[in-house]
Amino acid sequence: MNPIQSRLQAHAPLILDGALATELERKGCDLNDSLWSAKILIEQPELIQQVHLDYFQAGADCATTASYQTTIDGFAGKGYTKEEAIELMKRSVTLAKEARDLFWQDDTRHEGRTKPFVAGSVGPFGAYLSDGSEYKGNYGLSEQALIDFHRPRIQALVEAGADMLACETIPCLVEATAIAKLLRDEFSGVYAWITFSAKDDLHISEGDLLRECVQTLEPYEEIAAVGVNCTPPQFISSLIQEMKKGTSKPIVVYPNSGELYDPEEKVWSGDTSHHTFGECAHQWFKDGARIIGGCCRTTPEDITDILKRTTS
């Protein structure tokens, strides 16, 4: 069963979590590494579980796993075997499921809510490069090469029991179609959302019109929702309107805070949105988004704000 469809029938919007890396840094983790938050799967997995729990307690309906930057080659560069890399990918799902089940044991915290689900994070090829390419695209890779790149992680996340996949920060259409075809041809019954990174209020990072990208994904039943993430908040309303012209699928948005990312230093700087995340989310819901959360530099407090502003 399509987990998004069934949950949206119960209530809307669905509230996603916020930034995992931001919260890990707030807990003292140093993420200036090619593995980024994935290194904490090795060093302090209990902190990842705690962050997931924090987001559930804040009101999130979903935990997105700490697998965004997990790849066979990425772990190999740190001395890990293929088998060890796959186990670490699976650990990301286990941690999220354990946090979800721990949260759900407390009857006082989930009155009126549906049981949260776990989305296995599938970052783009650009995340493996660890040079900011998820905001540029232009990999120069074929669709088949991208299918082969994504297959092992998707296999691991599915085997570990993720309820669905979050294929996120995708900068180019060829990568989105590679993922959609991989799911259609090799992973029957597995659903995903695909969210693009966008460079302005019309175009995804590599330059294609977002409207045309989501239209291309429309025939794929395995793609349960489409949208944008890790994009400045000021572009989101326009991007929602563009997506509505090209898709009948539920629209998912989880922008970053509005700050700028330096891929060399791996730090964020600049100003955040002038509005609270909850105020913005209220508008995005009115615009037509039905799945809403936060990406880089957002916090559990932002998720609580989204919940209050979109359900009151």
From TrEMBL:
Provide the residue positions that the database annotates as binding Zn(2+).
C230, C295, C296
List the GO molecular function terms. Answer: S-adenosylmethionine-homocysteine S-methyltransferase activity; zinc ion binding
Single biological process term from Gene Ontology: methionine biosynthetic process
Asked if the record carries the keyword Transferase, the reply is yes
List the cofactors.
Answer: Zn(2+)
What is the top-level taxon of the source organism?
A: Bacteria
Statement: the UniProt record of this protein carries the keyword Ion transport: no
InterPro entries the UniProt entry points to = BHMT-like, HCY_dom, HCY_dom_sf, Hcy_S-methyltransferase
Enumerate the UniProt keywords alphabetically.
Metal-binding, Methyltransferase, Transferase, Zinc
Hcy-binding domain spans which residues? 2-310
Cofactor note from UniProt?
A: Binds 1 zinc ion per subunit.
Family annotation (NCBIfam families): PRK09485.1
User: What is the name attached to this protein's record?
Assistant: S-methylmethionine:homocysteine methyltransferase
* Species classification: Bacteria, Bacillati, Bacillota, Bacilli, Bacillales
Q: Quote the gene name from the UniProt entry.
A: mmuM
